[in-house]
Amino acid sequence: MRRIIIAIYKLPLWKSIIILILLSYIIPILIPQISNTPRPNMLNETLFFGFYAILLAPLMETFTGQILPYYILKETFGCKVIGISICSGIIFGLYHLYSPDYAVHAGIVGCLYQLWYIVYKKHYSDFKAFLIISSVHALHNSVAFLLNYLH
């Protein structure tokens, strides 16, 4: 795990963000059960849902799914990165209970977001790490929203 963190840390920010976004879309392809899972139908949703999914949810989920678990588990209990990432992934998966498979996909992405948050936190500041992960999450949701809309 340490080697992965060091490798991410050494990458320029833009490269690590591209890798994170690509991984979040490649996971369903690598796990066939996830790629066949129905996603929430955003076409029938209101503009508010788009606003929520693209702007509000990434901020709230990053705070409660990455920042709080990090501080509670690391600062209070002294947990290691792998434990923090797994717990964060479980929390993140629970936010996305559209189906069990979709929750697994979201859980894996939540683990990745946590891992990247920890790297960015060490490289930049807490707030900048929060903004980066929230932005990546918002970008992910924007692409999903647009693909759903165009489909």
Q: What spatial form do the alpha-carbon principal axes imply?
A: globular
Fraction of residues in β-strands: under 5%
Query: Could you spell the SSE succession in H and E letters?
Result: HHHHHHH
Distance between the termini: 38 Å
What's the alpha carbon Rg, rounded to whole Å? Answer: 15 Å
Provide the domain count.
Answer: 1
E-strand count = 0
The helix-and-strand class reads mainly alpha
Biggest sheet details:
none
Number of helices: 7
Helix amount, in percent? over 70%
Oligomer: single chain
Give start-end ranges of low-pLDDT stretches: none
| Overall pLDDT metric | 85
Spell out the key features of this protein.
151 residues, mainly alpha, 7 helices, membrane, hydrolase, transmembrane helix, metallopeptidase activity, endopeptidase activity
Polypeptide structure, described:
Keywords: Hydrolase, Membrane, Metalloprotease, Protease, Transmembrane, Transmembrane helix. The chain crosses the membrane at residues 12-34, 46-65, 77-96, 102-120, 129-150. This is CPBP family intramembrane metalloprotease. InterPro entries: Rce1/LyrA-like_dom. With 151 residues, the chain is mainly α. The protein has one domain. The chain is built from seven helices and no strands. Helix 2 (13-30) packs antiparallel against helix 6, helix 4 crosses helix 6 (100-123) and helix 6 (100-123) runs antiparallel to helix 7 (126-150). It starts with a helix and ends with a helix.
